[in-house]
């Protein structure tokens, strides 16, 4: 049990590329994706002891969300069922990662909490492979946040992870978070509707190659096919970033976040300013020394 408050940062992620490679018999989709953690936006997790017998007291400012349905609560409960470790804790989440952006906010929170709980469990804690399997059962993005690595290549349903080091040195990233909410379940349903089984491995359309930055890193997202058709504003934002000088741009996850990589920092700053004037919140991050 923590003797004092534990504070941890739960960073947002983007998918530098994302390919939907198939659908399993249990309905889960298999992916091939390259994750990158960002410095901002990021949530903050505060963990303090609760009164004996209280179990998990969760303070997470998401309107209408019952605590027991929160992914953090599910992480606490699932780890407890496997290890018998169910500490009395008060966990408060300061949310900064916007929802419905494909930035993994809930998954980041769950992964950071799960990792901390496993550490507190001591000898009862799970080995890394079992912890990652538990994380994958909560959500495809959760295992990423059980790793120290700033980037990772993931396959399967997200549980097969390999730390990665994409060469982004010299780039400035612009992340646009438009006031649009894309439901992940809907995005998968639309993908299945437009790509009926049997699903074959995705082949990269030739047209996407011209969006790859000079580093040779391919920026691509299969979800754009269905999401842009329903939310044309997102396509406009991507095209705006490319026309502003970006070397490449793509949607993150199932959307609605759109990111771009710029070689020229001034162009990146100007592109972000232009979108902010159109009421599209933006974040920027420079990779002067790589990821």
TrEMBL record:
GO terms for biological process: isopentenyl diphosphate biosynthetic process, methylerythritol 4-phosphate pathway; terpenoid biosynthetic process. Keywords: ATP-binding, Isoprene biosynthesis, Kinase, Nucleotide-binding, Transferase. GO terms for molecular function: 4-(cytidine 5'-diphospho)-2-C-methyl-D-erythritol kinase activity; ATP binding. The active site is at 13, 141. Its EC number is 2.7.1.148. It is an enzyme of class 2 (transferase). Residues 217-278 form the GHMP kinase C-terminal domain. The keyword Nucleotide-binding applies. The keyword Kinase applies. It catalyses: 4-CDP-2-C-methyl-D-erythritol + ATP = 4-CDP-2-C-methyl-D-erythritol 2-phosphate + ADP + H(+). Residues 70-147 form the GHMP kinase N-terminal domain. Pathway: Isoprenoid biosynthesis; isopentenyl diphosphate biosynthesis via DXP pathway; isopentenyl diphosphate from 1-deoxy-D-xylulose 5-phosphate: step 3/6. Belongs to the GHMP kinase family. IspE subfamily. NCBIfam families: ispE. Catalyzes the phosphorylation of the position 2 hydroxy group of 4-diphosphocytidyl-2C-methyl-D-erythritol. This is 4-diphosphocytidyl-2-C-methyl-D-erythritol kinase.
